[in-house]
Design a protein that fits this description.
alpha+beta, Double-stranded beta-helix, 2 domains, 8-stranded mixed beta sheet, 4-stranded antiparallel beta sheet, 9 helices, 19 strands, 26% helix, 31% strand, AlphaKG_dependent_hydroxylases, TauD/TfdA-like
Length: 323
């Protein structure tokens, strides 16, 4: 017997996200089979499903729910932000200070491999703020305009990262190893150019996609993090301060066209405008579980006050061979 209802979320746009509302806090795991059938039917149409009012419980039960969809949960490899492991295959959301806004992005779109599915579990909603805004990547693809789409898709993107030195995540954490040989082997396997700098820190370069096609739905999506990695994403005072102490090549992260030429900031401003227009934002309720198709739907994080705990699981790795 079904103990939940399906209805539009008041803040939704184009059906994103689909709200599944439980009756009287029914057990999430006990509802797994019905929910899986429902999600399999709707996820790749609407891009995201919000489960609300279910009894989820501890992180291990969240892990079991995500794993029951049939794919092994993924480790957070070659990550770009600080996270902590909660339990096997479950991580904290990005551990940036509460006042910082994290722009819309598709998880790991700055590399050639990414999870197709991602789950968020709001263990504790913030006192104020702390939403996880989302947006339809198909809409973004259409709205950026043909000229920008063509320019970015034909030229591709090159992400440059400099690890450590107190400015960004240490390479040992990103690669889960302090062995240089392990790092070099990972980079070779994933077509990442790497170099060890004179100070012992690591620089990587990787050429990646700007747009991508969903392997099952055939939808074209805007799929990159150029607007987030580019130096213009930094507040002006932070950008100026960093460039006083390091050369542009040594910034913690930056992005160029695939041939290494600079991206016009005006185009990135246009793209940020499209992202803002496509954003759907709703307040978390403690106990919410949000499941996204990571290619169809981008996500972000709003600033917040008070304690907030959102944990994340990812599965179904996918990638493109650009060579």
């Amino acid at each position: 017997m079904t103990f939940f209802s399906i209805k539009p979320l008041p803040e939704s746009r184009g059906g994103l996200p689909l709200l599944v509302q439980a009756d009287d806090g029914i057990d999430l795991l006990a509802s797994q089979q019905e929910l899986r059938e429902l999600i399999d039917q709707h996820l790749e149409r609407c891009g995201g499903v919000l489960l609300r009012g279910f009894d989820v419980g501890e992180a291990e039960r969240f892990r079991a729910f995500a794993a029951a969809f049939g794919d092994p949960l993924l480790n957070y490899e070659f990550g770009s932000t600080p996270r902590s492991n909660v339990t096997a295959g479950v991580y904290t959301s990005t551990e940036y200070p509460p006042h910082q806004h994290i722009p819309l992005h598709n998880e790991q779109a700055y590399t050639r491999e990414w999870p197709m599915r991602i789950w968020f579990y709001c263990v504790q909603a913030a006192q104020s703020g702390g939403e996880t805004p989302i947006a339809d990547s198909r809409v973004i693809y259409r709205q950026v305009g043909e000229a920008i789409r063509r320019r970015f898709s034909e030229r591709g993107l090159m992400y440059v990262r400099n690890f450590g030195n107190g400015l960004d995540v240490a390479w040992e954490q990103v690669f889960n190893s302090s062995d240089r040989a392990v790092v070099e082997a990972y980079c070779r396997a994933h077509q990442i150019d790497c170099e060890w700098k004179d100070d012992g820190e690591l620089r990587t370069r990787q050429r990646c996609q700007a747009v991508a096609r969903h392997p099952r739905t055939g939808d074209w999506v805007w799929f990159n993090q150029a607007h987030l990695f580019h130096v213009s994403n930094l507040p002006a005072e932070v950008r100026e301060s960093l460039l006083e102490i390091v050369d542009e090549d040594d910034l913690p992260r930056n992005v160029y066209y695939g041939d290494g030429s600079p991206i016009e900031e005006s185009l990135l401003d246009d793209i940020r405008g499209v992202l803002a227009e496509a954003t759907v934002s709703f307040p978390w309720c403690s106990g919410d579980v949000l499941m996204l198709d990571n290619m169809l739907t981008a996500h972000a994080r709003a600033p917040f006050s008070g304690p907030r705990k959102v944990i994340v699981a990812m599965a179904q790795g996918h990638g493109l061979d650009l060579l």
